[in-house]
Design a protein that fits this description.
Blueprint (H helix, E strand, L loop, with lengths): L92 H36 L6 H4 L18 E3 L13 E3 L7 H6 L2 H7 L2 E7 L8 H15 L5 E7 L9 E6 L4 H18 L7 H14 L1 E3 L1
Parallel strand pairs: 1-6, 2-3, 3-4
Antiparallel strand pairs: 4-5
Length: 304
């Protein structure tokens, strides 16, 4: 799908970032509107089961088991091996040695397996370079790595870092659709954009409204939303307008602050490529799609 151009610019010298775009479907992908993968909190296994119940919510068995059920089987009948009636053959000494040897070998195998898993995890953590950004505190997954989407043309742009007049705001994700899992965690994990580029990322997902049926109306709403909710000119606002049908792909619009537009106008194309890279990945939640798209953008920017 071609990228719709046009759209009015916001007030106070702001930019519309080129007019916006719709996520482009890679060949062989499925799905459309979102969310497709990741699931929501309501789909996850419960970990808050009331006391007296098992992890899955079922009643636990009473201590000692149910009478007549679950009791250990009776001992096998004693056999006569020629040592007298009812007298069991004594165990062979070689069997005891064999059991000890098997236990030692099994222990060695377990130790080597544990060391192998630990070494792979350790090396992966050391080399991935993605630690931080509230990773350990929010429970939020790291952004995905770029995949094999042939529609994404990887390029690099050079920008001069903006000098923001305000501190980073973590409350920068607004969800009217109910598609996100944790907007607060996602907002905290977008701080890397502010740190590298000096602009405040802001993401708003708008539920379907027939009043915003045209590109012009959507851009007007995006500019108006910036005026009413954002009090600085350092913000890069990406607003998604959902469609009526669940499988219809919506439209992204932008409103970029006057100070942020020298950077924002150059990264909208990269952000589009990042969205196209991850939008149709059914294994990613929408939170991960947005974070990964910003990570893709940041990784393809050289700050002068």
């Amino acid at each position: 799908m071609g990228r719709p151009m046009g759209g009015s610019s916001g007030g106070s010298g702001r930019s519309s970032g080129g007019g916006g775009f719709r996520p482009s479907r890679p060949s062989g992908s499925s799905g459309g509107g979102r969310p497709m993968g990741g699931g929501s909190h309501s789909d996850r296994p419960r970990h808050d089961a009331p006391r007296g119940r098992g992890p899955s919510g079922y009643d636990r068995l009473p201590r000692g088991g149910i009478p007549g059920y679950g009791a250990p089987p009776p001992p096998p009948p004693r056999r006569d091996y020629g040592y007298g009636r009812g007298y069991n053959r004594p165990p062979r000494k070689s069997g005891c040695v064999t059991n000890i040897f098997a236990t030692v070998v099994a222990g060695i195998i377990v130790v080597f397996a544990a060391l192998s898993v630990f070494s792979r995890s350790f090396l992966s953590c050391v080399t991935c370079g993605k630690c931080g950004n509230d990773r350990n505190n929010s429970g939020y997954n790291d952004p995905a790595e770029p995949g094999n989407n042939n529609n994404a043309v990887q390029n690099v742009v050079k920008v001069t870092k903006n000098k923001p007049s305000v501190k980073f705001k973590s409350d920068c994700v607004v969800d009217e659709t109910g598609w996100f899992e944790d907007t607060k965690a996602l907002g905290r994990n977008l701080e890397f954009v502010y740190e590298k580029l000096g602009i405040q990322p802001y993401v708003v997902f708008v539920k379907y409204n027939s009043s915003y049926a045209t590109d012009e109306k959507r851009q007007e709403y995006c500019d108006k939303w910036y005026d009413e909710h954002i009090k600085d000119e350092d913000t890069f606002l990406a607003m998604y307008f959902s469609e009526k049908g669940e499988d219809e792909v919506g439209l992204f619009k932008f409103c970029i602050g006057e100070k942020a537009k020298t950077v924002g106008d150059k990264i909208t194309g990269l952000f589009e490529q990042g969205i196209n890279e991850y939008w149709f990945n059914e294994n990613l939640s929408l939170d991960e799609v947005i974070s990964s798209a910003f990570k893709y953008t940041s990784n393809h920017v050289i700050v002068q």
